[in-house]
Design brief:
This protein has 246 residues and is of the alpha/beta class. The protein contains ten helices and eight strands.
Length: 246
């Protein structure tokens, strides 16, 4: 059975100006033949410039969201084809910050993923429970429902990545126990339509905890937030993923 590919993905969120391109170049210079897939997802204002800056390197780029429609009267939104035109290969969808701040439902995430696939993009679909849901013992129920409802038809290892990001661990410095991560990733793997779809962990991943997280079965990489903004912080995470293959 094909093994999931390993991915180190950086989500810059609403951070980054033109001067941030130097950080991306430094990351690419440090990982010329990484053996794992590396990507950075900057704000839309930087996507085209970042894609050009990283052309020919081992680092790919992605968007942070896309609309369900291919085009139309949707002021302020971005179509998947526009991301691809700007050089993106991936797009993050259903991040908890989008689900919370913009009220996105899993059905909308599935429709966005379908649009991403139609544009030739790889969809990184995010799942995760809140602290109250975890405390209530509902973690598997919540992420299981999000998985089944957020995946479009035709999702497979070539066009889809799943990122488990417990909402309470994002940007807080707190991470679940290794056993908790293993439990959720094992549960998600069993529910995938294609077991070779990569499963990433996200939520306060950094140089200090990356190696232990990557040693967990069914963890195929990470979706990293704040620690991806600086090459000096993200590069050790990429290196830890590389070492996990040895």
């Amino acid at each position: 059975m094909p093994q999931p590919r390993k991915i180190a993905a950086g989500n810059w969120k609403m951070h980054g100006l033109g001067e941030s391109l130097s950080e991306a170049r430094a990351l690419a210079a440090a990982h010329t033949a990484p053996g794992v897939d590396i990507l950075l997802c900057p704000p839309a204002t930087l996507l085209s410039r970042l894609s050009e800056a990283l052309a020919g390197s081992a680092v790919a780029t992605g968007g942070q969201d896309c609309h369900t429609a291919a085009k139309g009267a949707h002021t302020g939104d971005i179509a998947a084809a526009m991301l691809a035109d700007a050089g993106a290969r991936y797009v993050i969808l259903g991040h908890s910050e989008r689900r919370a701040d913009h009220g996105e439902t899993s059905a909308q995430v599935a429709a966005k993923a379908q649009a991403a696939h139609a544009a030739g993009l790889i969809a990184i679909i995010c799942l995760g429970e809140t602290l109250s849901e975890r405390d209530a013992g509902q973690t598997l129920e919540v992420v299981g429902a999000q998985l089944s409802q957020s995946l479009p038809g035709g999702a497979d290892a070539a066009n889809t990545v799943i990122a488990y990001e417990p909402v309470w661990a994002i940007g807080t410095g707190h991470t679940p126990g290794l056993e908790q991560i293993a439990e959720v990733h094992g549960f998600l793997r069993a529910g995938l339509p294609d077991p070779a779809i990569p499963l990433l962990y996200g939520g306060s991943v950094n140089a200090g905890n990356a190696a232990a997280i990557f040693a967990i079965s069914d963890v195929d990489g990470a979706l990293v937030g704040g620690a991806s903004l600086k090459a000096a912080d993200f590069s050790p995470v990429v290196t830890a993923l590389e070492k996990s293959l040895r």
